[in-house]
User: Which sequence fits this backbone?
């Protein structure tokens, strides 16, 4: 991936965990990443790389003053959507029925960010690139390939995201996936949306990353060996073969071997 992502496109993901080193060990072993705890002046934030290019971030759960939160927040991956103006997007969030979790802030010269929640409570980040555009490798083994929102209100989510970013939504064109909704930027599918009623009770509205892998079953077995959890065992579906997994600290993610490299779901 060279150059900035078009506004509205998922561009980066990061994970907040109680035990940062354990998470680094897990994902580096699983996907072949390289990563280490970052410098203290950057809060220890780890930029994980694949083939020397950034693919994801991992950070320790902590308060702004460096203390440990009590209670600890749930371990979760955050998806970041690219925008050409974080401030403008945030201004439209409350009018569209969402909430601002963390207001706009500069991240050195890398970019400007904010964290928001949509009307159903799904948390998502906004990223305005400076010197850092986001994930530099996608759609390869161990790299991000898709981002998916689960929500109890598909029409409401469509209206919200279209109000704050230049995205549209439309039913998937993949045969057998007609109930699936795609987020589109410039006519191209960049993410997806699923009705929460199709998932087990208790699953909250959320954004989840999908990683492309060469062998879903092998990755699933590796997750189990490393102390992780299988949330949905490997299965075949319209876009390929996938599984829903969780790392040993509870961070949920999906892996997929897609039938098309350009449109995995």
Assistant:
């Amino acid at each position: 991936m060279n150059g900035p992502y078009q506004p509205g496109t998922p561009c980066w993901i990061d994970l907040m965990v109680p035990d940062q080193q354990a998470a680094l060990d897990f994902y580096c072993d699983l996907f072949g990443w390289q990563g280490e705890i970052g410098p203290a002046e950057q809060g220890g934030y780890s930029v994980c790389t694949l083939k020397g290019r950034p693919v994801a971030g991992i950070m320790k759960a902590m308060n702004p003053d460096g203390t440990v939160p009590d209670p600890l927040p749930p371990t979760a991956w955050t998806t970041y959507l690219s925008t050409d103006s974080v401030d403008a997007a945030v201004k439209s969030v409350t009018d569209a029925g969402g909430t601002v979790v963390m207001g706009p802030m500069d991240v050195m010269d890398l970019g400007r960010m904010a964290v928001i929640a949509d009307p159903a409570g799904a948390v998502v980040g906004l990223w305005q690139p400076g010197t850092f555009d986001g994930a530099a490798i996608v759609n390869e083994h161990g790299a991000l390939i898709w981002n998916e929102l689960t929500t109890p209100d598909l029409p409401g989510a469509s209206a919200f995201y279209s109000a704050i970013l230049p995205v549209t939504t439309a039913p998937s064109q993949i045969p057998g996936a007609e109930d699936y909704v795609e987020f589109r930027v410039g006519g191209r599918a960049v993410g997806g949306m699923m009705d929460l009623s199709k998932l087990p009770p208790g699953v909250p509205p959320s954004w989840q990353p999908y990683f492309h892998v060469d062998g879903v079953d092998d990755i699933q077995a590796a997750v189990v060996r490393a102390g992780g959890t299988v949330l949905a065992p490997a299965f075949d579906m319209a876009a390929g073969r996938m599984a829903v997994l969780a790392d040993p600290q509870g961070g949920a993610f999906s892996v997929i071997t897609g039938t098309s490299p350009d449109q995995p779901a």
Q: What stands out?
A: The chain has a mean pLDDT of 93. Helices lie at 20-31, 86-95, 154-164, 216-225.
